[in-house]
Amino acid sequence: MRRRERQVLGGLVSVCSLFVVVVFAVPADHISVLPLGQVSPVLLTKLETALSVTFDVPLDRLRPEELPPVAYNAMRGQYNSAAVLDYLVAEFSPKPPAATSFRPGRLLAVTESDLYADSMSYVFGEADPANRVCIVSLARLGEVEVKDKVKSPLDLNLDLNLLCVRAIRESVHELGHTYGLAHCSDPTCVMHFSHSLEESDRRSCNFCPDCRRKLKEFRSSGVMSSGVQLLNSLTP
To answer: Which of these, 228, 193, 188, lies nearest to 212 by C-alpha position?
Structure first.
């Protein structure tokens, strides 16, 4: 091979190498599911299947971890959702590569423990859009209303499907926040805010046309876009 040919080939190799580096420097969007404590494997599998279809992204399941003791309030017998999110950001949230603020992927934590927020006696879940992490609690999703308005635990052998539907609904809702979606005024939209399990059950597991459009705008804007930036640009 002549010297000139070697120089040309060497240049092509350098360009190809640079291209490969650029391609792999920006990973595609994905969702990681993190069980916190003991969570039904059957439920997790159903949940992951539904989320993969809804968001059209690959999913992976991380090995189970325990809830952080610092987030536990012994007087209430509950975990503070904000403290759990801080823990998730510190320990599991993808770190940005050098020279870019892009943080690929999203983290969904699932727990059977009960959660509360400082201003609410309990929450079904909570999200941190800036860091693309969220958590969903199954503790109150496994309840049914009886005629005297007293809540009783679900018979998981009979009602696992109902629990799965509720878990899917809350997970889609919280993940929607990580994409920049705000609460929706449509009571049937999955992004509608619910104050109770009864209100939550009235929602579908799907986005309304307006929220679906906003989600599509995020996708078309490219993976480098921030969920918070999208929320600010689309929210009146």
So the answer is: 188
For the beta carbon of residue 163, count every other beta carbon within 10 angstroms. 18
On whether the CB atoms of residues 138 and 113 are closer than 8 A, the answer is no
The CA distances from residue 60 to 36, 75, 103, 127, 157, in Å, are 15, 35, 17, 19, 27
Task: Indicate which residues carry an active-site annotation.
Answer: 174
Measured between alpha carbons, how far is 42 from 61 in angstroms, rounded to an integer? Answer: 13
Burial 167-182 (b: 16+ CB within 10 A, else e): bbbbbbbbbbbbbbbb
CB 123 within 8 A of CB 141: no
Contact 103, 77 (CB under 8 A): no
pTM, two decimals, is 0.76
By the 8 A CB rule, do 13 and 40 touch? no
Q: Is 121 helix (H, G, I), strand (E, B) or coil?
A: strand
Tokens of 126: 């909570």
Q: pLDDT (tens digit, 9 = 90+) per residue, 177-230?
A: 999 999 999 999 999 999 888 899 999 999 999 999 999 988 776 543 333 333
What domains, with CATH codes, occur in the chain?
A: 28-143+152-234 (3.40.390.10)
H helix or E strand, kind and range, residue 233: helix 227-234
Which residue from 58, 18, 39 is spatially nearest to 163, judged by alpha carbons?
39
